[in-house]
Fold:
Amino acid sequence: MKENTTSCSKKKIETEPFYNRITYLNGKKGRSSMSINPQTLLNAIKEAKEKAGERKFNQSVELIINLRDIDVKKPEGRIQEAIELPYMPEEKQNKICVIASGELALRAKKAGADLVMDRAELEAIAQDKKRQRELAQKYNFFLVEAPSMPLVGRILGKFLGPRGKMPVPLPPTARVEELIKKYRRTIIIRLRGQPVLQCRVGTEKMKDEEILENIQTVLRTIESKLKRGIKNIQSIYIKTAMGKPSEVKV
Structure:
């Protein structure tokens, strides 16, 4: 069925890849204060769940942010951020592919990476576009040992790029166990052709307070990237996958 849609530490330099600008939670990394009353968000979450209707599956909860006075054609009007959420149900956690060799690969397997490939295995699919496409579709994040980054770009880049899945470089001393945990809870938000941002912030079976913390984390990040902060936000909606949207009063 088709989902409903609605129109509705330290400072990093701007040239830094977006995947290194992950928003950390619970005070680990400072962000601008969020201007929307938490109770207002909680009321919209409850209303969205009430509008969800009876389904045979655990519906995702979506956040929709409509922006104003933003020119998406200009560099300053483009937003692409990786955000680590406080809560992510296990059944909705991201699938992680690690491309590495030696000790780094062994640690990735022990840490429970969904797929671990070495350089030779990657080179073996250099001419297999079907397999390349399957990998790009199945896995949400690709953690890659630094020497293999150019190879990943050459073989998988044409399928990862359009999906907004940029490989994350792993130095030899990377704490891959912690990175796997982090990226399982990470979402990517980005503006496309319209000034609208939409992302998953939980599921209907999650506690309202958990969804609230996830939404607050996303909104803090968005506000910090907008020139006028909350004034660049025209409207906010919360909805379940198959339900009608509930508007948040901004």
Remarks:
- The chain is about 30% helix and 20% strand.
- Residues 1-33 have pLDDT under 50 and may be disordered.
- The two ends are 31 Å apart (CA to CA).
- The domain at 18-91+185-248 is CATH 3.30.190.20 (Ribulose 1,5 Bisphosphate Carboxylase/Oxygenase).
